[in-house]
Sequence to fold (228 residues):
Amino acid sequence: MPLSPRGVLCGTNFSIAFAKDGEDCYRRQLMPTSIGHALAGVAAAWGADLVPGDRAWRTAPAAASWYRRAGDGLTVACAALGALPDADLLFHAHRTYTHSVGAVIFVGVFAAAMAANAKRPIARVALMCAAAYGTHLLLDYLAIDHAPPLGIQALWPFTRTWYISGWDLFLRTERRHFFSLATFWINTRAALQELLILAPITLAIWLIRVKALAGLAPQLPRGDHPPQ
Ligand SMILES: [Zn+2]
Fold:
């Protein structure tokens, strides 16, 4: 397994980071790409909208923009949360506590505080954001990993054991020789496979969501977005 020399730039398909002296670039690869993770975060947000309860504020009139109908800023935040755990590449803790149930709980608590401040349904927003972050763990758990220790420290802080499904559902990405044609094709293939798996699921959830929220839209003030 190749080790990076001091200060080498480890390119990922959508990010770059410095590997520390002696650190293995290969170990620090992303599993699914940020595209797949963000899409899963969106699916989680829309999936949470299917849960009955106080969700009329998640609707928008049919004439509203796609952005508003898709759930505007909160859905975008969930997309970001889906990809966020891999920000740990920046501080050399890849796939450890950032990829754990402990981090999911932290995100849920933080989102709950934000929801309380914004006067939104606290439990709904907390669970939505925690689920969006949690999708990252699921995708990594289902992905191929060839760099021991395999997988993620999913149950931190209860244990530092590494977990991976072995299902190899998502292809590995490549970050060495980032600008080479070979790397480009490996990462493109990985991203396309993610889209092949996740796009139909996300689309199905979107269509069900449109139906589920359709009856709620008339509850809104005419032609207006729900009050913030
Ligand atoms: Zn990850």
